[in-house]
Amino acid sequence: LYMPFAISKLELINYPLTTIQYATWRQMGLQTTTTTEYLDINLGIFNGADIPDNITDNNDAKDFLVRADVKPPTDPVKLRFGGYAWMGNALPPATYTYIDTIVHTVNVSNPEDKSFRKNRFGGFAMADYTKDQLALRFRGEFIMGKDEFLTAPDVSKTDIRNSQAYFTQASIQPLKQVEFLLRYEAYDPNT
Description:
The chain is mainly beta.
């Protein structure tokens, strides 16, 4: 929900954990947006994760984006809800840290430049109500990730890690110059 937002347009000073943990910040590719009165559709194809940068990406497998925003005709409340999927691949990091009874760091050898799945699925809802000078705003998002990774200490094997994050956010603006905001969020890196 907040991935395309500039910092200056954020409602709270920080991005939510859903964006910090799952955002695909630097991408090169093509995206198309179709906007209608009640529905927006985004489709995209991208070069993949920015590890370590956009130039050295192995480019073997592309990432795909699909997103739909539903905008029902409701007055005086402005509603928007939808869902999205980011299906992609990325190279594993050069080193892996794992914990058993002590902490180990393993150097990863990936001679075939093998890509690993890195998928994201989520949904969001937002509602805005404005009357005279009073404004009420609600936001919520849930996202889950499915990552394939090398299993340490035996880096010849792979495994899947599932994660999830969500937030709910509310604000009341009694005057144009005053707004009170509240956000609750949670992130589980390995469900």
